[in-house]
UniProtKB/TrEMBL annotation:
Pfam families reported in the protein's UniProt record: Aminotran_3
BP-aspect Gene Ontology terms: gamma-aminobutyric acid catabolic process
Organism expressing this protein natively: Ignelater luminosus (Cucubano)
Record-given protein name: (S)-3-amino-2-methylpropionate transaminase
GO molecular function list: (S)-3-amino-2-methylpropionate transaminase activity; 4-aminobutyrate:2-oxoglutarate transaminase activity; pyridoxal phosphate binding
InterPro entries reported in the protein's UniProt record: 4NH2But_aminotransferase_euk, Aminotrans_3, PyrdxlP-dep_Trfase, PyrdxlP-dep_Trfase_major, PyrdxlP-dep_Trfase_small
Cofactor entry: pyridoxal 5'-phosphate
One GO location term (cellular component): mitochondrion
EC numbers on record: 2.6.1.19, 2.6.1.22
């Protein structure tokens, strides 16, 4: 691809990259009305700080350094005072954007401050109000599952969800349940059967479930994540790869669903025959890191039936898709499953990490699911404030409205620049569009940043949106206007 257009674009005076924002009423008092750039990104201060940090810690992933005192709402301010409209939000982790008043007030409360600074080991010394917080905050938004286990991060949540599946599977095989033989107790200490059984977890092509050792065995998005890592020889199935637009390829995409489900059933059958049964199936409602790939409600409904038929726990990984970004609290709620999944993992926008689960998936013996902190009470306090704002400001409806505006705008750009873009897709604001080549995608993201727009990449050629729940239609207009101007430069 010629690079002349990118050179010309970067030489455009930065003040010409501004647009006049539509008149609007922001949900965050004092929020900027539009991006405003003073330097290129990264600017001189970010470049200086990069050199300083890189001497201490590998910093190759750093895009720019931020000023979190000045960042507000949907806008992040960098170390060079560039004001950037952020539609990526710390990799999908900021539900209310930057410095929301409700969040800033949380630790003004002295009791909440004590919960933060004393950081209890929740598995052994929880505070006296911890059971109430679990019930009133976390179980209050549970996807119809009766239990919750808190953890430290998304990967940690998925890792322990695997353990729950293994324990539940073996518990069903024992008679009576919960009785361990001396042989099992001895053999597990040397990593041998029967105490360390040869059970497996089924995951999907392009999946991302974390970077800890077991979750890496279920992660298949980028080689750089997995190189040199010892891996469990667990099965992987195809995730549906759809043709777009969906309404024009219903039959073809339905056939794709059936092919993928047939492969899942074949794996479940063959691994059971080979004495390496699948104890759990883990899947994202929308594959995020691996390309923002979606599958139909019918696919998920049939997958759940297969899991039940073969005695495998179904784990829905909502680490990136949960907490309202789909227009529902949980993305899998769009699938109309006949009953809840066995486990739903969460993190990111939820602030605290962990998983909801059925009674069957509950560990019956103490210390089987345990670590020093078992989560962070300070994060539950932040989540409590977030959930109140979601309800008060009706943010799930806002996500649906803004998401529709964004999706329609992306489809319009796809029609206008059909030689550059394709396959607009997603639910709510969990949206993505493909560029025709990986190189073009990378250049477009770079140019968007120079116009004051922060987005993310996904898969090999997708541009991924992961904005805050407070993103409004005027923010969508700014993004779409600047995206169009970038595409026009390429044209």
């Amino acid at each position: 691809m010629p690079r002349a257009w990118i050179t010309a674009f970067l030489r455009t005076p930065l003040h010409l990259n501004k647009v006049i924002a539509r008149s609007s009423c922001s949900l965050i008092p004092g929020e900027p009305t539009a991006p405003c750039l003073k330097t290129e990104i990264p600017g001189p201060n970010s470049k200086r700080l990069f050199k300083e940090m890189n001497c201490i810690q590998q910093a190759g992933t750093v895009q720019f350094f931020a000023n979190y005192d000045k960042s507000l709402g949907n806008y992040i301010v960098d170390a060079d005072e560039n004001v950037i409209l952020d539609l990526y939000m710390q990799i999908a982790t900021m539900p209310l954007g930057y410095n929301h008043p409700a969040m800033l007030e949380v630790f003004c409360d002295k009791h909440n401050l004590h919960a933060l600074v004393n950081r209890p080991a929740l598995g052994v010394y929880p505070s006296e109000d911890w059971p109430r917080k679990l019930r009133d905050v976390l179980l209050n938004v549970s996807p119809r599952l009766p239990h919750v286990t808190t953890m430290m991060c998304g990967a940690c949540s998925n890792e322990n969800a695997f353990k729950q599946c293994f324990m539940a599977y073996r518990n069903r095989e024992r008679c009576p349940p919960g009785s361990f033989t001396e042989e099992e107790k001895t053999s597990c200490m040397t990593n041998c059967p029967p105490g360390s059984p040869d059970l497996t977890i089924l995951s999907f092509q392009n999946a991302f479930h974390g970077r800890t050792l077991a979750t890496l065995s279920a992660t298949h998005s980028k080689a750089i994540h997995k190189l040199d890592m010892v891996a469990f020889k667990w099965p992987m199935a195809r995730f549906p790869q759809y043709c777009y637009p969906l309404d024009e390829f219903k039959c073809k995409n339905s056939e794709e669903d059936e092919k993928c489900l047939a492969q899942v059933e074949d794996i479940l059958c063959q691994y059971k025959k080979g004495n390496r049964p699948v104890a759990g199936i883990i899947i994202e409602p929308i594959q995020s890191e691996g390309g923002n790939n979606e599958a139909s409600p019918c696919f998920f409904q049939k997958l759940q039936k297969l899991a039940k038929q073969y005695g495998a726990g179904l784990i829905i990984d909502e680490v990136q898709t949960g907490c309202g970004a789909s227009g529902k609290m949980w993305c899998h709620e769009h699938f109309n499953l006949e009953c809840p999944p066995d486990i739903v993992t969460f993190a990111k926008k939820m602030q605290i990490s962990g998983y909801f689960h059925t009674e069957e998936m509950t560990a019956k013996e103490t210390y089987r699911i345990f670590n020093t902190w078992m989560g962070d009470p300070g994060k539950v306090l932040l989540l409590e404030a977030i959930l109140k704002v979601i309800q008060k400001d009706n943010l799930l409806c806002l996500v649906q409205k803004t998401g529709q505006k964004l999706k329609c705008g992306l489809l319009e750009l796809e029609r206008e620049f059909c030689f550059l873009l394709d396959s607009t897709r997603g639910i709510g604001t969990l949206l993505a569009v493909n560029c025709t080549t990986p190189q073009l995608r990378d250049e477009v993201l770079k140019c968007l940043k120079q116009k004051g727009i922060q987005c993310g990449g996904s898969g090999t050629r997708s541009i991924r949106l992961r904005p805050a729940l407070i993103l409004q239609e005027q923010h969508a207009d700014i993004f779409l206007d600047r995206f169009r101007s970038v595409l026009q430069c390429i044209k």
